[in-house]
Amino acid sequence: MNDDKKAAALAAIAEVRDGMLVGLGTGSTAAFAIAGLGDRVAQGLAIRAVATSAASERLARAAGILIVDFAGVSRVDLTIDGADEIDSRLFAIKGAGGAMLREKIVAASSDRMIVIADGSKRVARIGAAKLPVEILPFAAAYVLRVLAEMGGAPVVRADYRTDQGNLVADCRFTMPDDVGTLAATLAGIPGVLGHGLFLNEVDAAYIADDGIVTRLERSGASA
Ligand SMILES: O=C(CO)[C@H](O)[C@H](O)COP(=O)(O)O
């Protein structure tokens, strides 16, 4: 599985070119991309990067990648990130690592966003993975009530805060056909700061099975 994570990551970082501002994802697959980019930087690749988590920022700095503060960045050239599930529509569930809020913001700012994954993440239709929801602590009781009433059976991650100091509740929704309505409803709950449904952000996916990397491309996206 780790070999496939690495194979997908190395295939994706081949898209990174000199001068790019690169979004660095979070998680074990993204870590392979960060390490691979570090190797290319050591060989002369000139890039800057923004990180989607404190953990990825640490990894990137240790790998010799120049990190800039995303607060001053309006556009990223290319973001490479992992996922918990991805389907052929390039709908993804993210956030097992709790970084989905920053990941979605960086993805939204990116001209191109690539998911990298081993084959275990590829599904016919997203929905089996837990769907994480980031919650402002002030709003916790109210938001948990609403999520429960929506059928999400939320479970708050114990002893856990995001990089922004917020709570995460992992939900189990029966995924409707109209997943866009669920995504919009979740985003509209006061006190919900983000969630792990990525429906519009992913332009391409590199998925590796037994060393064979397949690229899925959103129709209309440029490679
Ligand atoms: O969304 C994420 C973190 O918030 C990760 O990208 C996702 O959980 C996949 O992680 P891994 O590559 O370790 O399986």
From TrEMBL:
Function: Catalyzes the reversible conversion of ribose-5-phosphate to ribulose 5-phosphate.
Enzyme Commission numbers on file: 5.3.1.6
Protein name, entry field: Ribose-5-phosphate isomerase A
NCBIfam families: PRK00702.1 (NF001924), rpiA (TIGR00021)
Keywords annotated in UniProt: Isomerase
Binding-site list for substrate: T26, G27, S28, T29, D81, G82, A83, D84, K94, G95, A96, G97, K121
Enzyme's top EC category: isomerase
KW Transferase (keyword) present: no
